[in-house]
Amino acid sequence: APAFGFLSDRHGRLAVLLPSTAMFALASILTGFVTSFEWGIATRVLTGIASAGMLPIAFALAADESEDAAKSISFVMGGLTTGLMAGPGLGAYLTELWSWRAAFITLGLAALAVAVLGPVIVKKSDRSANESGPSTGDGRLFVPGTVGALGGMFLGLGGAIGLYSMVGERLRDGLHLDTQQIGLVYVGFGMLSVAGNALAPAAIRRIGGGRPAMRLAMAIVLACLAVVFALPDPALLAVLLALGVWAVVGGIGAPGLEAHIASLSDTHRGVLLALSTSAANLGVALSAALAGEAYLRGTLWVAGLGVIMLSISVMALA
Asked: How would DSSP label each residue in 141-204?
């Protein structure tokens, strides 16, 4: 992702975004036609490489083309959240209706349509940050505040998502919900996250910036984690309310921090947002693995892990 971000800073966003989307489309369609598991892994690796040139570049493009970066990035984040919420259900439906191959082929065709229509959709002229006039920052990649913001993405956003991976286990083991009920909770969480994305621009302006918004969001998520994982015998309503608050404030804080990172430098915006996305993904990988191990030892261990990771995140953002 950072390599694609660098190229987008030098040669323009669409010069990276559209070929990456086309490669994603081709790899997804090929996945639908593989004849062995090994070829399936190969096409998914290709899909992963292509996706590294999509989401962070989309964030950078949104920030380039708008005077209100928080608003445009929140809009893109809302699209991401909606896709994460709807994708598994649509994929399962297509698999049940035809086969798993149909799910991947349909995804590829949708991405191909985006690649073809991209120049039409993005009506404003695409330009690299180096051609867009006066730049913010002093030309350095890591201007003051960058490391703390990336740390917030790693331990804050990535940590919270990784810890969320244990929510289904908690709902099943502690509250005895079945798979369908847990799925409905996940759908509700996604819908409230999209609502948080929609509320983000106004909330960020009121709070006073993206970094303070993310700090406040992480502090609130800590309280929600305590309700979900630390209470020995929580009521279902209390857990659902905590998850609802978690979803909304997370939907506000995440695009706020992305917008803050985008504002640190015009010259290196593509690289910084790519590093931001990578930091969040690595945080998800680390925290999900640690949360799984912690859950085997008891839910209090998961809560304790959350306190450590999110507290460090709040301090990094300070």
From this structure: SS-TTHHHHHHIIIIIIHHHHHHHTTHHHHHHHTT---HHHHHHHHHHHHHHHHHHHHHHHHHH
